[in-house]
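Running this now, will post back.
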Amino acid sequence: MGLLDWLFIGLLSFATLCFLFVFFFFFYSFSTRKELKKMKWRKRPKNKMKRKRWMKVRKQLEMRRKRSDRTIIILVLLAVVASGSAFYSRYYQMTHLTAEDAKGVVQGYFMTEEIENKLITMRDGGSIEKEYPTYQEISSLIVTYSNRSISDGLSEEGKRVLTRYNVGMKNLGSNLHSLTEQQLEDKEKIESYLKDIQKMKNQQKEVFKYFRVNESALKQKS
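Update: finished.
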């Protein structure tokens, strides 16, 4: 389990414990109020010593009630904050990429840009023999990164979006990797693959939008 899983479990357990103590102090406060109510209706002793003792007991009950009520309020606040934090951490986990998933998406972005540039260079008259080894390496890495497993903590929609992206990247990488130097001499074939890359980029935008990835920051790094 990841850090967010442990955080969710820990915060939720703490919130549950707080709620249990709330019930305990509620009944404790209720019994104190009941006892205090009986004392208030009870006739005040005429004897000075008994009256002092009676007043002392009543004062202790009042303080005990106030402490219980104050404790209940604090526990309720702690329980609400802890449970809210727990469910926010779960929501965050479901809608944000893990470090491993983010690495795959970011690397996919850079490799798509790089292989697109290689294809454009070869289409526009660049040396295919010179560009081909790097081209093969990048297309192979695209397949490798798209084969990574997806985090179980993501929402069903998040898994669907990321799986669709990974499958698309894998197919694109496999198709590009299978091209020979001779096939890359065909400009029309290169154009068709550049269109496939553009489709993949549109799919990337879906992933970035869903997982709130800052594409502008990635462009600055590329």
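The helical segments are 3-41, 48-95, 99-123, 128-146, 156-177, 187-211, 215-221. More later if anyone needs it.
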